[in-house]
Structure formats: structure tokens, C-alpha cells
Amino acid sequence: MSAKTAAESRDGVCFSLDAETRVKLERVGSANVANVLLGHGFRNIMMPGLKPLNGSQRQLVGPAYTLRFIPAREDIDSMGDYSRDDNLHRIAIEQCPSGAVLVVDAFGCLGGASMGDMMAARLVHRGVAGAVTDGGFRDIDAIAQTGLPCYQREAAPAATPIRMHPIALNEPIGCAGVAVYPGDVLVGDGDGVAVIPRELVTEVAEAALAAVEYEQFAAREIARGRSILGLFPATPESRVEYDEWVAAGRPEQH
Amino acid sequence: MSAKTAAESRDGVCFSLDAETRVKLERVGSANVANVLLGHGFRNIMMPGLKPLNGSQRQLVGPAYTLRFIPAREDIDSMGDYSRDDNLHRIAIEQCPSGAVLVVDAFGCLGGASMGDMMAARLVHRGVAGAVTDGGFRDIDAIAQTGLPCYQREAAPAATPIRMHPIALNEPIGCAGVAVYPGDVLVGDGDGVAVIPRELVTEVAEAALAAVEYEQFAAREIARGRSILGLFPATPESRVEYDEWVAAGRPEQH
Amino acid sequence: MSAKTAAESRDGVCFSLDAETRVKLERVGSANVANVLLGHGFRNIMMPGLKPLNGSQRQLVGPAYTLRFIPAREDIDSMGDYSRDDNLHRIAIEQCPSGAVLVVDAFGCLGGASMGDMMAARLVHRGVAGAVTDGGFRDIDAIAQTGLPCYQREAAPAATPIRMHPIALNEPIGCAGVAVYPGDVLVGDGDGVAVIPRELVTEVAEAALAAVEYEQFAAREIARGRSILGLFPATPESRVEYDEWVAAGRPEQH
Amino acid sequence: MSAKTAAESRDGVCFSLDAETRVKLERVGSANVANVLLGHGFRNIMMPGLKPLNGSQRQLVGPAYTLRFIPAREDIDSMGDYSRDDNLHRIAIEQCPSGAVLVVDAFGCLGGASMGDMMAARLVHRGVAGAVTDGGFRDIDAIAQTGLPCYQREAAPAATPIRMHPIALNEPIGCAGVAVYPGDVLVGDGDGVAVIPRELVTEVAEAALAAVEYEQFAAREIARGRSILGLFPATPESRVEYDEWVAAGRPEQH
Amino acid sequence: MSAKTAAESRDGVCFSLDAETRVKLERVGSANVANVLLGHGFRNIMMPGLKPLNGSQRQLVGPAYTLRFIPAREDIDSMGDYSRDDNLHRIAIEQCPSGAVLVVDAFGCLGGASMGDMMAARLVHRGVAGAVTDGGFRDIDAIAQTGLPCYQREAAPAATPIRMHPIALNEPIGCAGVAVYPGDVLVGDGDGVAVIPRELVTEVAEAALAAVEYEQFAAREIARGRSILGLFPATPESRVEYDEWVAAGRPEQH
Amino acid sequence: MSAKTAAESRDGVCFSLDAETRVKLERVGSANVANVLLGHGFRNIMMPGLKPLNGSQRQLVGPAYTLRFIPAREDIDSMGDYSRDDNLHRIAIEQCPSGAVLVVDAFGCLGGASMGDMMAARLVHRGVAGAVTDGGFRDIDAIAQTGLPCYQREAAPAATPIRMHPIALNEPIGCAGVAVYPGDVLVGDGDGVAVIPRELVTEVAEAALAAVEYEQFAAREIARGRSILGLFPATPESRVEYDEWVAAGRPEQH
Is F139 annotated among the ligand-binding residues? Predict the structure, then answer.
């Protein structure tokens, strides 16, 4: 990690993701990731109830930079306090590393916004890969126009300090009932968001992509009229066929 | 039913739908169907909370072929078991008749997928008319691309055997709190899915289409500035007007 | 209010909105409105859980004309009763003033429709600005085609009298847990619907637009690479910059 | 109704209940009432989710005196406003007739209290028969000690004006999704609260008590070892047996 | 199983439970059972959200006899139909074996009753060990008086055929999201209901009781002031101590 | 704080509560506390949805010692890990100061237990004042027998490490949507749990007790037949009466 900038490594956490793995993860579904992780014994890595801001946003891929909120208290949280430069919510926007994903533990709160369009614009400028909250965002039409891949439960337009107080950066958090340790890698598509433990990311990306490539073979066979029995999920026999097809250069017809 | 193929009739259930009735049902709204059935005394035939996979899928019409799940148990359900050729989930995909709709009693479970993209592709190839679950599907972006009309609560990307065990085909089931007997005919649009008891399908299709045609007359009148009072819902007087308009060849102006 | 038509003022309530204020409110987000109202001490003016019928409908702006439902009772509510010309649901459709928004207290009920496509068509013809319910509508595909801005929890296609009885027009109501007094002004976008107390509408429109214009400045600065610290939320210093930029004619570069 | 006091009749609504009918309704279950009303075509007369304050409170019986809340607004609702003598919440406590039940449409709100212990004490002193809300009460330990039969969703201890504004007395309301017209008669036990349309109360009390008396016969037979088949629900034959048993003076043995 | 009566074995399912195992299971908590089953790899065997009818009912222990409901349909389900002797709901009450537990898949429905007091009285007379539903019961005050251990979500007093149709006996079912195969053994206390796969019941009872007995030792140590560290959960060292204590005759002091 | 033991002060947080204030808080309702705090501008200090374990437990009073959980992950959380002496869940049980309340941020999780009976027994022995979780406990019958005042959403009997991982002690947390800073003082009764910011505890205890004492006067007046108007909430005039009554030695009659 010799060439990493300061922004890419904080508190001993590595927020970088090698380009090859990122490319692989951009090609796989969150459900493929979930299947591979199930093979490793992980049963709770998809965030239930989180939906993309709109149907056309691109795939979410990146390591998690976390922000934890607790409920607001009227003597501590106000619009005035919110404007201070040491407000952790705003610091998170300035410090989330390029290529990382801002992951917000909003304790499921929809009474205040986890982010608005100005913050999203700043994340886009800074090269952040996306934002995920188990609460919601405000200005969602404008955020959608930035193209930043975002996941939320539903829109939460009220001012953040009405209900939420930012309390910590880069602690392990829960988001939508799933554990997120800083540096874990998130993959999001229409199905939602999967969390890959950081130690396993290279291995999982490899295996998920292999599953996707087999599915391309299976889809082609299905289109030709073949039953899913003996084809999907793969059998030893169908894997041999797949390998032959790959060896033959993945021809359209065979 | 002499000319039915084996696939169209199982366990004494008729899964065919005559072309004329199908065409009618493709022109009516699920809400029109609900209204007609209310006139027959049925108050609980729309499946609450089920939404189309996306806004552009075509109308869902077809007889119900049912699949019932119960919760999974770790000693019975595994990815290995899932791959077996006698797994009822996979058999349902292979046996749901052409023109029918696969209706899944997932006991509302979002912890596992009621179907994925490979299964959806196979249904499309086999000419199945759509799929409905009171749980959710995985790979929903890919399923949406197949064009198969699908209804779910929300995406459920986790592997099926984590939480769900297929236990029976073509039993009467509940789906989203509505009774579905095999062979009942489903009609789905943006409002959701209506279930027509199989004995009533011809009659209901006829009456729902008549309502839609009257609504075309009413819409034209409303566009010309007429009040809904005395026009919608129809009165005896407005029905006379409608009949005259129909007799006149449904002119744009009169 | 000398030139108001009867339809624009009922029961002493003014349902008109001056054109200048309307134009301002069409340019601001509901979240901007919420922020301004928070400054006035209002913490509960966004209707949680209400979503636009589709993503492409135009901004909702207009004074509230209210309709209150209570649960139906079988001896009072029937399709026959529903067709009567003194049915308050239908009268609301005929009397909601041009430029106003029909706001429905459906006590959160999804078991019957708060409105269907024929009613929506009539509202469009009459120049009504939109419809909001804390229940749902039926025929939502057809309503979406009318272009009428509509907000609901989710589709509710069953016939209204199965579960809902219209009991009063233009009473103060609750809608989705927010107080709505007739004449209050609603502003709706992708984030949902905000309610502005009628006495404050001119003032709030002014302040919300000012916030939007500052955000245009801030967005431009963010696009140029500036941190949100010291820029958003605005500081006294950044406001000076903004004023200078405005005085300079809002140049693209400075 | 010649001898009624002013308090017993308001706005043309009769809040009295003859002693004989009251005694009958104190002996029947809310589920018996529901069954009789189902025979009259009423399917939605039990308030789902409302529970007695504690297990030992006595049966709730009495005509409904209604109070409707809407959500609070910060410029209208405050502790100061709450103390005013024209606050409708407090007036309801003073005017709810003796023998009647205070029924509160709290729009399901748990963010403020529908009643506290001082109000409950006053209701007890005034001879009010009970209180029902689709929100909740505060000081529930103290209310329970007064013995006043009360039903709520769950405790709601926050100050009323934080979230609730009393807007009207003795309008038809919805409470927990059930229509309540002033003067309708409520019957509550451990199963919850049933609402009897006022026109039917004598008839329903009679029929429900008859059902309870038959059940006493059936219970005795069951205790002696008889199957419920042919016994419960009653058959023509078992009704003859019952009549004979009644004619014989309801002997312990026969 | 030579001496079993017909009532104790149906469709090849054994509904008996040997007296020794039953006694053990009456002494353990459902949470102890859950812990033991977790050691066998079972993570989903407690039924979430089901509560005992009251706090004083005795421990529930017995093999599952299942009843599956689907939603009612107005042309099939009526009070008249309900009274027929071939109604499966009523047959279940007559055929559920002595010592077994009636487990109802009510598809979570609270709109109709899974059982009432007459049915409960009959179960008591027939020696049935309890009743469990993922819906609710009616006449719960009266059922509580019978002493039959019962678990439900909440009271559901409406007549069964309004919303529920009994469709099958002794099929594998889901109840509150947990798989129940006929003959599985249920254990219920204040924490809720645990389901033991029938093959494991002897083994689980043994291990759960061993855990309870160790807890008695641990409770005694804790009462004497010892830390839970090194004591609970048990360590190899603390198990030696426990064994010595048992060998010494479980003295009050040592 | 010179005489405090190590256990009473951790990380600079004071967990002691002077005896006089504790006695006052044992005499007031959580709703009284909420009212006083509303006067200080606090609107969100009651924990919604948390209920006492049973109706007979004593009042909960004490400073908060916090434990934060995040969701479990299969590679980190196991029964083996759970038994380690550095498990923070178990350390919390050993270190929560005497007189304090263990407050658990369980992120609302009911899939694992926030505490069981052995842990509760240890807390009792150590003089801890109670336990509060926004999840649930296991072995609740046994915990109830210890007499420890406990609040939860509902029972959660599954083993903790199935779903929960203890991540930190004495951080500021959210519990049931309310902010809890270590040292804040909790007051719980049948209405639920109120949180008093630690700086305000003396003042709030004083004012809440004053309110309770006035209510004793008001209750006496109500019992004598007086209206709540002019009496409750207190007016300047009624406060004079109250003061006179206090000055007269709070006589039964006056």
C-alpha cells in the first residue's frame, strides 16, 4: 500500500480496491456475491429494504467508509450546530476517500436526511463511489441527476439535526441489520446492496464473476430451449460442457 | 378439453384460457376486474402490496399454477439439495404450463428468492405468462430485461434455501392474503394483481371489458367538459347515451 | 380577493394562490420548504411515506381542499350509495377549486381507492393542481397518463365503498400524520409533500427560493472543487461572496 | 327520551342505554357481538390491535361519545394552549355523558397521550363507562388503579400537544379502522372492542346473549365428553336439546 | 409403537412422546432448547412474535398436529359452510391426538379466529396439550380459564370464515416463519415457542435439561457473589466444579 | 466525587446518583419527567415501544451505562467467541456500576437476546438498578423472578451471537430512537422509559416531584367532584389553593 494517499488509508483501514477486482465486481450481481458468501458461511450480507435511488444509476462498488448517527437531542443538535466545521456529518463528506462508499448507520431513521444534493455533489467531485444509508436522503431528484449510485429505504427530506446526531466516523456499524466494518466492500445493483468482508474481496470477486460467466453459458442454452435441470445450478457434466464452450472461444452456436 | 396437451392440464386442473377471453382481459384494468367481482360478492381478490417489477412490463393475464413454500430447515435445505432434479421449485419452472402464471406462496418471505433470472429465462422460453410471489425475486434487473410480467413485494436476493423450502405444487394457496386455487385467472397491471375464480372468468372478462368501453365513452365526455355526476358511475340515462354512441359507430364528435 | 370566483373561496377559506408565489414554489424543493419552516419552529410538515405516482410528474403546488373519509359500514356504504349525486367523494371532485390540490384523509386506508382515473380526468379538466392521499389510488397507470401530480402510499385498487365513507369537505384534517387546514399550500416533488401554513406562504416561498438560488451558487462552487466547509450551509463570508456573484450578474466564471 | 338529562343527549344524539340492554351486553363477549353482526352483514366492527389496559378491568359497555384529533402544529398547539378552558380535549372529559364511552380518533398516534390519570379520574367521578383510543394513554399504572375500562394500542406518555390537536366532538369518526357514529354502542372484553350500530343494539344484545346461553349448554355437554360436531355451532337438533334443557330448568345433570 | 392408539398415529406420523422426555422438556426453557439446537446447526426454530395467552399458563410440551388455512373466498366460506361436519377446522379439533399440540398455519391472519372457547374446551377434554397459531384466537378470557397452554400473535375475535379457509391437516407448514413438520415437538414458555425436529427430541431434551441443571449450579454461585466470567457460559474448569458438586449431592453450601 | 469507587466512574463519566434525587425519581411517573423536559425543549426523551417485563416490577431509576451491539457476522461471532472473557457483552455485566442501569443499543434486533437470566442474576447481585434494551431478553420468566426492573420490545430468546456482536461500552448510543449519553438518568414505569440529560437531573427530579404533589391535590379535588377546568393543568388560582392546602398540612378535608 506504499503509494496510497493519506485519504485512502485512515486509522489503519485500507480504503483502496485494486482496479482488477473493481472491474470484476462491476460485472456481477449482488445476488451472485451473496451466493458466493453463502458458500463461505455468511447468511446475512444483503441489506434488506434498501433500494437504489432510481432504476438507471450505475453499479455500486467500493470499500465502506462509515458514519454513525445517534438520535438528536434538542440541546445539542440545531441548525447552528449543524453548520460548524467540526460537524462529523460534514467532515465525512470531505474525508470519505475517493473510490470508497459512504455507508451511514442512520439507525433506520427517516425523520432527518442522511445526505442532500449539495453533499452528493461534493462526493461526486471528490470521486466517491456512492452512498448507502438505512435511513433516507433529501433532494433525491437532484441527487439522481448527479449520477451518484445511492441506496436508501425511502426519501427523508427533513433537516438532519431534527432527529439525527453524527457521533463517529469509521467505527464498525450496523446498516439495515448488516455488519459493516470499515474497508468492507459493497456491491449494489437493482436487488440491493451486498457487503463483502474485506479479507475475502479478491476471492469473492473471482468466484462471483465465474458464476456470472457460467450464467452467460446457461442463458444461451436456455434460449436454445434447454431445461434448467442438469444446467442450472451447474452440474459436473454441465461444467464440462461450459469448459469446452469456453475453450472453443465461447461461440454463438456450437 | 379434448385437445389440451398434457402440460395444460394437471391433476384435473385446466390451465388453458381461450384466446378471446385472454384478449379481453389484456384490455381491462385489475381494478375493473375487482369491481365486477365485487358485484358477485367478492371483496378480497386484489393482492395488496404486490408491485410490478418495473413500470413498462406488459399486462399479466393467465391461469394460476401454484407453488407453495414453507420455511427452510438447515438439515433439509441446502444449496446441494437445491440442485437436485426433484426439487419442487425447479420442477415448477419446468412444468408450469405455457400461458399460465406461476403463483408462489412464499409466506411473505423476503429472506430468500422466489425466482432468479435463469428461472425467469426458462419460463419465457416455455411460454409462461408471468410470475407472482408474495415474497420477492433476485436478479430483478435481468428479469426485467426478459420482459416477463412479474409481481413481488420487494427484491429478495438471498439464496432460496437459506429461508424457503418448496413443499407442494398445485395446491390451493394463499398469496398476499388472497386465495388462489389452481386454474384461477390472474390479471395484473400497475394497480397490482386481481384473482378471478376460474368458474367466472368468461363472465368477468365480458363485464370488465364492457366497463372499460363505457369508461372510454365517459373519458371522452369528461374531456369535453362534462361533470362526472350523471356520467360516472353510469346512470340509466348515461347508458342510453352510451348505447346511442356505440350504435353511431363511436364517433369522435356527436 | 375581489375577482375570485365562487369556486375559489368556500366557507371563508381562500383557495387562490397568487401567480408570483406559485412560480416561486414551482422552483423550490419540498426539502427547502421544510428547512424554511423549521426556522419558524415547524418540525412536522413533510408527509412521510407518500410518493409521487411516477418519477416524471411535474411539481405539485397549490392550496389544500380537503376531503375526510372514515371507515365504511356495510349498511351505509355500497356501490349504489356511491353513485348518488350527494356522495361527498364525487362532490369533492366537482368542487375542488381550479388551482387547488385535493388532499384526502383516507385514515391510511389501502383497502379502497381514494380516486380513480375518471375522477382524475375530471380534476385535470377542471384545472385542479393535483391530488394527495395517505391511502392510495386505483387505475394508476391511467392517472399517470393524465399528468396530474399525485401522491399516495401505494396503489389501492379496490372499490372505495368497500372500506371508505366520505364524511366531510374542507374540515381541518390529518394526512399522513401532518395537519392540513383548508387553504394551506402544498409543495410536492420527488422527496414528497410539504405543507405550508397559509399565513406563511408568501414569506416561505420567498425564503425557499432564496435558499435555492444560494444553492445554485454553491453547486457551481462545488463543481469547481470547493469544499462544503465554509460554503454549505452558508456562512456570513460565503453569503458576501454570493452577493457579489449575484451583483456581477451570476457569471459562469469569476 | 323524555327524562334524559342534558348531558345524555347532545346534537340530537342519544347517549343513553336502557339498563336491561346494558346488563345483557355485560354478559356477552365482543366476539359474540361480532358474530351476530356478521349475520346482519357487518364484517368490520372489531377494532384490531386495541388491548385492555390490564387483564382485570371489567367489561366495557356504553354508547360512544367521540373526540377527533388531528396532528398538532407548533404555532397552534402548546402546553399553554392545552390549558385553556376551550380546549376540546378537556371539554370532552367534562361533557362525555355518564354511562357513555369516550372514543378517541387519535389517527393511530402514539406520539402524544389520548388521556392521562387526572382525566381518567374525572371520567370515573362523572360516571363515564370507559375510554377507547387508537393511540395510547399516559399514566397507565394510575389509570388502571381507577378501574376505568380502557383500551389502547400501547402506552403513549408524551404530552398531548406535542403531536395531537383536538378538532371536533361528536362527529362520526374512524377508530382503529372501524366507523364509530356517536351513540353507537361499544362492547369490550379481552378480545378487544366491538361497535354495534345504535339502531341494532337491542336486537344484537338479545341475540348475543342467546348465543352465550347456548354456549353454556354446549360447554356443559363438552365437559361431559361430547364432540363439537353436531353441537357447536348449533344444529337444529342440538337446538331442540337446548330448548328441552332450558325448559327443564337448566339442570346440572340430565 | 405397537401399543399406540389410532389417534396417536396418522398418515405415518407418530404423535406420541415418551413420558420421560416430556418430563424433561417441562423443566427446560424454550431458550435452552434453542441453544441446544443451535449446536446442531438450527438457527430458525423459535417462533417470533408469538406470546402466551397469559402469564400463568403452564409449560407447553407436545408433538405438532398441523392445520393449514388459506384465505377465505366468499363463494366457498360462510357461517353455513363452517357448521358442516366435514369442515377441516372442526375435524382438527376432534382428531388432534391426546398429548399433541394443535399448530395452526393461519398465514399470519388476524382477521378471523384460529380457535374459540368451545373448541378449546373440547381440546382440553380430549387431552390435547396446547394450541399455537401465527394468527389469533377469540374468547381469549374464556380460553385462559380452561388452562390450555396457547400461543398467538394477538386476539383475533372475528368469525373464522370471514377471512380463513381450512385446507389441509398434517401437512408440513410454516407457523410464524418456522417450519413445522407433523410430529415435531414444541416447547413453549414465556419466551415463546421452540420447535424440535422429531428425530432429535430425545437428544435435545437430554442436553437442554443438562444445561438447565448446570444453570442451577451457576445461579447458586452467582448468588454467592461469583462473576459470570469463568462460570457462565461454562468453562472446562467450571464443569469440573459442577461435576464435583453433583457428585457431592448438590449441597446448598460447599 | 471524591468518595466514588472505581466502579462508579469510568471514562470520566459519573454513574452515581445522589440518594435524595433517586428517592424523588422513584416517586414520579415517566410521563411527569417527560412533561418537565418538554418545558426545557426536549421532545424526544421517551423510548417508544419498550415495555416492562411484567406489571409488578418496581420503578426503574438510575444512570445509564451503555452497551452497543452491531449485527453479527458468522466469521466473528460464535458460541465459542461468546464465551471468551474479553467479550464485551459479558464485561458489561461485570462492570455496569452498582446503582446504574444497563442500556443496550441492540439496533432493534429481536433475533438474539440482549440478556438472559444468568446475566440478570449477576446484575442483581452487583446492585445494578435495571436493564433496558430496544431488542429483547431471553429467559424472561426467570428474569422477572429476580425482580430486576427490565424493559424490552418483546422476548428475544435466540442465542445472542446468532445476530448480535457487542462492539463498544459507554459510547453515546441510540436506544429505541432516543439518544442516551452515559450518565444520563433513566426513569421507567408502566408508561415506559424516560431519559433525563445528566446535567438536568436534579432540577428535573425536583420539578417532576412538584408536579406529582400537585396532582395529589388535584386528584383529591377531582374525587370530591371538581371539574378539571381551572384545576388541571394547574392555573395560577389553583396553585394558590394548592399552596394553602400544603401550608395547612395537606388535610384530608378542608
Answer: yes
Q: Is residue B253 part of a domain?
A: no
Region B194-207: what's the mean pLDDT?
98
Which of B176, B197, B218 represents a domain boundary (last residue)? B197
Which of A45, A70, A178 is the best substitution to test chain F (most F C-beta atoms within 10 A)? A70
Distance CA F62, CA B45 (A): 54
Q: Which chains contact E through at least 3 pairs of Cβ atoms less than 8 Å apart?
A: B, D, F
Mind listing the pLDDT tens digit for each residue in F105-125?
999 999 999 999 999 999 999
Tell me: the pLDDT tens digits for D199-225?
A: 999 999 999 999 999 999 999 999 999
Cα(C163)–Cα(C107) distance, integer angstroms: 11
Same domain (yes/no): E149, E130: yes
Task: Say if residue F31 is in the same domain as residue F155.
Answer: yes
CATH code, domain with D87 = 3.50.30.40
Any binding-site annotation on E77? no
Q: Are residues E102 and E209 in the same domain?
A: no
User: Min CA distance, D194 vs chain E (Å)?
Assistant: 9
Name the more confident of C47 and E253.
C47
Residue B139 to residue A218, Cβ atoms within 8 A: no
Contacts of F223 in chain D (CB under 8 A): 121, 125
Same domain, E230 and E142: no
Q: pLDDT confidence of C3, banded at 50, 70, 90?
A: very low
Instruction: Calculate the CA A57 to chain-centre distance.
Output: 12
- In angstroms, the CA C71 to CA D179 distance is 5
Q: Tell whether the model's pLDDT for residue E39 goes beyond 80.
A: yes
Given an 8 Å threshold on Cβ–Cβ distance, is E72 in contact with B179? Answer: yes
C211 in the same domain as C102 = no
Is residue D216 a part of any domain in this protein? yes
What helix, strand, coil percent values describe chain F, rounded to 5?
Answer: 35, 20, 45
Contact F118 E194 (CB under 8 A): no
The model carries a pTM of 0.95
Among F79, F91, F141, most E C-beta atoms within 10 A, so best to mutate, is F141
Distance (Å, whole) CA A156 – CA A110: 5
Contact A233 B83 (CB under 8 A): yes
CA distance E184 to A51: 38
- Which range marks the domain in which residue D214 is found? 204-247
* D2 located within any domain: no
Long-range contacts of residues F90-94, Cβ cutoff 8 Å, at least 24 apart: F90/E228, F90/E229, F90/F119, F91/F169, F92/F65, F92/F67, F92/F166, F92/F169, F93/E228, F93/F119, F93/F122, F93/F123, F94/E227, F94/E228, F94/E229, F94/F122, F94/F126
- Grid cell in block for residue A88: 462529523
Query: How far apart are alpha carbons C229 and C189 in whole angstroms?
Result: 27
Q: Are residue D175 and residue D225 in the same domain, yes or no?
A: no
Q: What is the ipTM of this complex?
A: 0.93
> Which residues share a beta bridge with F66?
F103
Residues B239 and B191 occupy one common structural domain:
no
CB contact under 8 A, A110 and C194: no
Strands E173-175 and E164-169, bridge-based pairing? unpaired
- Examine the fold and report which residue of F197, F222, F237 is the final residue of a domain before the chain moves on: F197
Q: What is the DSSP letter of F96?
A: S
Residue contact D75–C108, C-beta within 8 A: no
Q: What pLDDT digit, counting tens, does each position of C188-206 carry?
A: 999 999 999 999 999 999 9
Q: How do residues F29-82 score in pLDDT, each as one tens digit?
A: 999 999 999 999 999 999 999 999 987 899 999 999 999 999 999 999 987 777
Residue among E42, E74, E78, E160 with most chain B CBs within 10 A, to mutate: E74
Pairing of strands A130-133, A13-14: unpaired
What is the count of structural domains for chain D? 2
Residues C46 and C18 in one domain: yes
B89 is a domain residue: yes
H or E element at residue B104:
strand B101-105
